[in-house]
Write the structure tokens for this entry.
Amino acid sequence: MPAELGKIAPLKVLWLTDNKLTRVPKEIGDLGALTVLKLGSNQLTSVPKELGRLAALEKLYLEHNKLTSVRAELGRLAALERLILTNNQLTSVPAELGGLTALEYLDLNDNKLTSVPKELGNLVELDVFYLDGNELTSVPAALGGLTSLTVLSLGSNQLTSVPKELGNLKAVRYLNLDNNQVTSVPAELGRLTTLQILSLEDNQLTSVPKQLGDLNAMDQLRLGGNPGLAALPEEVDQLSTAHGGICDITM
């Protein structure tokens, strides 16, 4: 990519997906009018810190590269609404991303994350958060502060527990915890009055709390692949369509 690209001051959309890029010139930070930057499906191992100067940027796509880290400077992108980092080699993300107060969509699927900074709980506008296919053994309680969140997907990690603070996600409609090592579900999830789909397949559950029976908006409760889960509390079982309820329960 030529450095001279940074001289195209009026440029608003730059689409460089599916090339063989190994680097991005620092001059890209001079594109002050840029609102969309697509760099997915390349061979990038890093991005320049100057990306943090793109004050108008709303959408940043970096999926399917070879990134091992994320620049802390990206936390300065005050207008950013969508950040896609799927399928890289990230082991962590910087706490500074918690400063992306306009962010609505964050995709960190299929990386090597072993932890998530608690500062991501400050993303008050976040609507969709994907963390599937990482190496997480826990998630911070601070994620319970994501009160605009409608989708939280944590499948295919190594979670053994679920923080009770997720019961504060007052807008969540879809919560995925499939294919982990979860042994228990906090009763506080029974406060998720907007929840429509709760997926807990392929874990190590032997019971679920009766408070899940309070989830009157739920139409799917997925519990398959928990060999130690033989029966449900009556309060939960009554949600089942088999008993005249509104929820499709699979075990």
The helical segments are 234-237.
